[in-house]
């Protein structure tokens, strides 16, 4: 106690300067090493985070960020090295210990329980047992203070990805953390929501909370963080002040080589309409899904059209309707591929007409995790690539098709016999995108092409999509990442509450306009329906 | 109308072993473990309870022995499936086959023995009230225990934090692990509880229902208990309804034969399973309901990721 009093009296003079100058770091990582069979995930990692500092941890997939986070959160134990917490060496034996000390973690792969309510999910991650009613009050309070609307009694499986992430954030904020770790937190938010999250984080930092921020979105890191540590291959390869770097220079530090911006080529000529959706209305097959309301769009050959929008506004339903995964009640001609009415077709018949699809979820939807890459390649390509004959799998072409994807798209794996589930997210995504692109489709519908994918892989995927469009394919990109839409798309539509805005050429539309459209402010030309995002959420909660 | 009280009494006795075993399996399954060895654990519980009661003369010791035997059986299962990560379905089937043979081996010396049935815990005065008295206040200890256990489990699952954690482990073991719960430890405990309750169910058969030992005396009740858990969509309240309904069907089957109604007995024995299949079809048509109550990770081995 005596020590604390001394610090607070002497600290008065420098209260507003950056905290911790000279004082103990909130957390210091010293020489942390962790080996797994066959790979050294963390190799002698050292860095420090001061109280009130927003510190970025940068690195490609597989650079060792997740392992390091797990060590700090007590999920894993380091083989060597130590963690110094507020000046004292500590052992963090479990997440429970970590939370006890004041470490909060917003997981990249959400650690939620689908069949439980929001409130139960929050209760499960609290160390101290609290009365549920008291907890509910606290939750609502935190939601209000930080502007994170959530109905505590809804079941998680009915929530969108964005809403799910809010649970994780609220869960951490309730514990009054001294160090908050966020793993890829903004991939599911609108620009306005990102700004709001940043306000929250800056406010927490001002209150003295240290923040370890992991993201691939380097301009966000630049806007938010005061310091960055860059990991590559399990080692610290450098540190920098993101405010003084460019997104490009940081990306190059991460991947250790020069980065080339996607080459959009010359201004492209667009051909005939290859994918047409007219007046498509569809009730969602999910209990709390979003119904599609009168969707119209046309994508021409050679055009890349982006579908922007906050998660849960009908994008999943749109994807499933286009891919033929939903049973179609709509009129057959509400979806046309190359002029043919296909709305009553299943996925296989649509693929036969030259359409291919890449869903958002890699494991379990885009690929079968327990099957090998060549088997996964076979599953969608067997017809177009003639991988089967007389009902049997043609082993040699199947394997060489997979090998071709691996080679062309630089998929890092042990070979085409590797299980899909053993690949990192970015590598599996490259494989799945490659599988569809190499089938030389006339129409490609792709959902969240680079979600959770590192900069190197993302730019490879972007380039592949641009090259594909240059060959005359109509590409529809459903994405929540506006940078991505700006980087590759020729035109953009925005989805909100199951409705779609009119297509606009990319060059004519500002990021603020898109943000407003995302919030449900349709038809800027006239009859505006004023509804900001918070109210939209509230309306849906009310129905449930 | 004199037949009604004895009729209800036989329904209760027919339902109690089902309820005991099924409520244990409910907890096991809620944690994400599918133990198909209920029949085997019941049989081993039955012979352990009978043998100890017959040799020591104490029914209390017998019940304890049945609990211990059921728990030990489930520990074998837990070690194989949770620690060594053997396939749960195959291991559960093996456990039943093992239980059938092992109980017959141990029980061969006890065939033909007779013991006193478990005494009814009557309350003087109240138990003498016509109709209600013998039904509500004239049962033995295990009948009351079976009801108390279900009420306790219902409370545990819906109100307690430990119950929430148990459900969490069954819903997503990876999430539970990430937050810091010990998935394996919780599953061990849940599996052991299931074993203990199956042992009790077995003991009820050999100590109260028919106070004797006969080879394979559970006669498929373990399987009905398993079906009941699904039938009840993992809800304790419906478990009671289901157990008593199945008890009623099995008693009616005997009465129908006694009354000379010529329904083949095999048809009647088939009914509980048929009912389960029908209910499964009905509840499966509503995906949301299944999702809300069925443990999503059931039957999956858990290996902590790196």
UniProtKB/TrEMBL annotation, chain A:
GO terms for molecular function: ATP binding; ATP hydrolysis activity. Residues 1-20 are annotated as: Disordered. It is found in: Cell membrane. InterPro entries: AAA+_ATPase, ABC_carbohydrate_import_ATPase, ABC_transporter-like_ATP-bd, ABC_transporter-like_CS, P-loop_NTPase. It holds the Pfam family ABC_tran. It comes from the Bacteria. It is a peripheral membrane protein. GO terms for cellular component: plasma membrane. Keywords: ATP-binding, Cell membrane, Membrane, Nucleotide-binding, Repeat, Sugar transport, Translocase, Transport. Residues 27-258, 275-522 form the ABC transporter domain. This is ABC transporter. It comes from Thalassospira tepidiphila MCCC 1A03514.
UniProtKB/TrEMBL annotation, chain B:
The keyword Hydrolase does not apply. The keyword Chaperone does not apply. It comes from the Bacteria. Keywords: Cell membrane, Membrane, Transmembrane, Transmembrane helix. GO terms for molecular function: transmembrane transporter activity. It is found in: Cell membrane. The chain crosses the membrane at residues 6-26, 33-53, 59-80, 92-115, 135-157, 188-207, 213-232, 239-257, 263-283. It is a multi-pass membrane protein. Pfam families: BPD_transp_2. InterPro entries: ABC_transp_permease. Its main location: membrane. One of its GO terms (cellular component) is plasma membrane. This is ABC transporter permease. It comes from Thalassospira tepidiphila MCCC 1A03514.
């Amino acid at each position: 106690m005596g020590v604390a009093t001394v610090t607070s009296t002497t600290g008065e003079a420098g209260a507003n300067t950056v905290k911790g100058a000279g004082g103990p770091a909130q957390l210091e990582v010293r020489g942390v090493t962790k080996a797994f069979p066959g790979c050294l995930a963390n190799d002698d990692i050292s860095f420090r985070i001061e109280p009130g500092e927003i510190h970025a941890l940068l690195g490609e997939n597989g650079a060792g960020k997740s392992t390091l986070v797990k060590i700090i959160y007590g999920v894993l134990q380091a083989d060597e090295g130590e963690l110094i917490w507020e000046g004292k060496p500590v052992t963090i034996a479990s997440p429970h210990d970590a939370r006890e000390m004041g470490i909060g973690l917003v997981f990249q792969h959400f650690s939620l329980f689908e069949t439980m309510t929001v409130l139960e999910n929050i209760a499960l991650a609290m160390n101290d047992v609290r009365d549920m009613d008291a907890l509910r009050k606290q939750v609502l309070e935190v939601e209000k203070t930080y502007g994170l609307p959530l109905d505590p009694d809804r079941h998680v499986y009915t929530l969108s990805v964005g809403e799910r992430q809010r649970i994780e954030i609220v869960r951490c904020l309730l514990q009054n953390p001294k160090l908050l770790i966020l793993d890829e937190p903004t991939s599911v938010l609108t620009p306005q929501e990102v700004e709001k999250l940043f306000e929250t984080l800056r406010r927490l930092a001002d209150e003295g909370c240290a923040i370890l921020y992991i993201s691939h979105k380097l301009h966000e890191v630049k806007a938010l963080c005061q310091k960055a540590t860059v990991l590559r291959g399990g080692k610290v390869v450098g540190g920098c002040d993101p405010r003084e770097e460019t997104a490009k220079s940081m990306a190059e530090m991460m991947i250790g080589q020069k980065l080339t911006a996607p080459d959009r080529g010359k201004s492209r000529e667009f051909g005939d309409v290859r994918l047409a959706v007219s007046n498509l209305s569809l009730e969602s097959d999910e209990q709390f899904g979003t119904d599609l309301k009168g969707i119209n769009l046309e994508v021409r050959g050679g055009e890349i059209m982006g579908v922007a929008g906050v998660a849960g506004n009908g994008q999943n339903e749109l994807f499933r309707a286009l891919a033929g995964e939903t049973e179609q009640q709509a009129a057959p001609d509400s979806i046309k591929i190359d002029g043919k009415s296909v709305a009553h077709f299943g996925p296989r018949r649509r693929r036969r007409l030259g359409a291919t699809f890449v869903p958002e979820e890699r494991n379990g939807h885009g690929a079968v995790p327990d099957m090998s890459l060549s088997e996964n390649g076979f599953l969608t390509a067997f017809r177009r690539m003639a991988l089967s004959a007389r009902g049997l799998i043609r082993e040699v072409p199947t394997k060489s098709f997979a090998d071709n994807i691996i080679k062309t798209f630089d998929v890092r794996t042990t070979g085409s016999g590797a299980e899909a589930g053993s690949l990192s997210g970015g590598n599996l995504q490259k494989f799945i995108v490659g599988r569809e692109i190499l089938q030389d489709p006339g129409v490609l519908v792709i959902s969240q092409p680079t979600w959770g994918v590192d900069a190197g892989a993302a730019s490879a995927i972007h380039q592949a999509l641009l090259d594909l469009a240059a060959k005359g394919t109509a590409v529809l990109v459903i994405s929540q990442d506006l940078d991505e839409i700006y980087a590759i798309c020729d035109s953009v539509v925005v989805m909100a509450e199951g409705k779609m805005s009119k297509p606009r050429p990319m060059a004519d539309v500002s990021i603020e306009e898109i943000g407003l459209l995302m919030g449900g402010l349709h038809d800027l030309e006239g009859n505006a329906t004023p509804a900001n995002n918070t109210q939209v959420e509230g309306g849906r909660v009310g129905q449930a | 109308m004199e037949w009604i009280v004895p009729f209800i009494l036989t329904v209760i006795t027919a339902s109690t072993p089902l309820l005991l075993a099924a409520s244990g399996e409910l907890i096991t399954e809620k944690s994400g473990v599918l133990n198909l060895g209920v029949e085997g654990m019941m049989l081993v519980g039955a012979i352990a309870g009978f043998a100890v009661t017959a040799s020591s003369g104490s029914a209390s010791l017998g019940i304890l022995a049945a609990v211990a035997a059921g728990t030990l059986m489930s520990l074998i299962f837990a070690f194989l499936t949770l620690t060594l990560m053997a396939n749960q379905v195959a291991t559960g089937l093996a456990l039943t086959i093992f239980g059938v043979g092992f109980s017959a081996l141990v029980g061969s010396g006890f065939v033909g023995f007779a013991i006193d049935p478990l005494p009814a815990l009557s309350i003087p005065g109240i138990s003498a009230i016509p109709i209600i008295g013998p039904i509500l206040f004239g049962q033995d200890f295990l009948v009351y225990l079976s009801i108390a256990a279900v009420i306790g489990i219902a409370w545990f699952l819906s109100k307690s934090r430990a119950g929430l954690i148990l459900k969490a482990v069954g819903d997503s073991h990876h999430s539970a692990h990430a937050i810091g719960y010990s998935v394996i430890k919780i599953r061990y405990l849940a599996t052991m509880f299931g074993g203990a309750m199956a042992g009790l169910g077995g003991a009820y058969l050999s100590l109260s229902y028919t106070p004797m030992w006969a080879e394979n005396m559970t006669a498929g009740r373990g399987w009905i208990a398993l079906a009941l858990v699904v039938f009840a969509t993992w809800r304790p309240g419906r478990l009671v309804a289901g157990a008593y309904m199945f008890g009623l069907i099995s008693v009616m089957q005997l009465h129908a034969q006694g009354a000379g109604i010529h329904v083949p007995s095999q048809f009647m024995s088939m009914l509980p399973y048929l009912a389960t299949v029908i209910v499964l079809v009905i509840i499966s048509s509503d995906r949301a309901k299944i999702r809300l109550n069925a443990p999503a990770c059931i039957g999956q081995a858990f290996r902590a990721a790196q």
